[in-house]
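Hi Q.,

Before the meeting this afternoon, I wanted you to have the iron/sulfur cluster prediction in hand. No need to reply - just skim if you have a minute. The sequence and ligand are here:
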Amino acid sequence: MTALKKVKENLFLVIVALAYIAMFIINPVMGTESIKNSGYYIKEMLFIMPVIFVLTALLDMWIPKEKIMRYLGKDAGFKGVFLSFVVGSVSAGPIYAAFPMCLMLRKKGASIRNIIIILSSWAVIKVPMLLNEAKFLGPKFMAIRWVLTVLAILIFSWISAKIIKDEDLPVESPAKAGLHINRDACMGCTICAKAYPELFEMQGKKSVVKAYDKQNLNLENLQRVIGDCPVHAIEYSEE
Ligand code: SF4
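Predicted structure with the ligand bound:
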C-alpha cells in the first residue's frame, strides 16, 4: 500500500525510469546515450539553478510589487507587452532558468499574458540567438522568422491569457485590491507607523493597517511610505 502511494506521488519519475528500462531492452546503445545526455543536462542544471535562484531572490527583494504591477501587470497595456518582449529577448541562460523568474514576477503581479510573452521570447527570439541565426542562415531568414514569431507570440499569448485563469496557476492571485502588509516580510522597523500613524500601527513586532476610508487616503504619503519600507512589505493597489 505504501509502495503504491510512493509510486503515485512520484508518477513522473517512475514513468521516466520505465522509459529508460524499455529503451535499454529495445536498444542498449540508445539507452546508454540517453543516460549520458540526461546526466549532462542534470549537471548543467545543478550548475545553473543555484545562480538563478539567488538572482531571482535578489530581484524579488529589489523590485517592489507595485512597479511590477504597473509595468507588467494586467493594466500595463502595450507598455507591458513591449517590456515583456524586451525582458525575454535580452535574458541569458536556458529556458528552464526562466521558470522561477516568471513565478516571482507572477507573484508580484505580472499578467498571465506578459508571463507567456517573456517565456516565449526567452525561448525563441533571444538576441544572441538572432545574431547567430543571421550569421548561419542569413539576415533575411532571421528577419522574416523574427517578425512572424513575434506576431505568433502576440496572438497566442492573447488567446492563452483568455483560457488560463488566475486559479489555474499554483500561486496566489496577485491582484488583491486594497492596502495590505506582508506580515512574513515585515521586520518591525516602525518606519511606516511613524511616517503615517493615521494608517499604520505596530502590534507586537509587526505593522498592521488601521481601518481607513479610501476617500481620505493621502496617496502621496502612502506611496512615500511604500517606497521607504526596507523590505517592500506594504502592498497597495486601487480597489
Ligand atoms: S516599514 Fe515595512 S518593515 Fe517597517 S514596520 Fe512598516 S511594514 Fe514593517
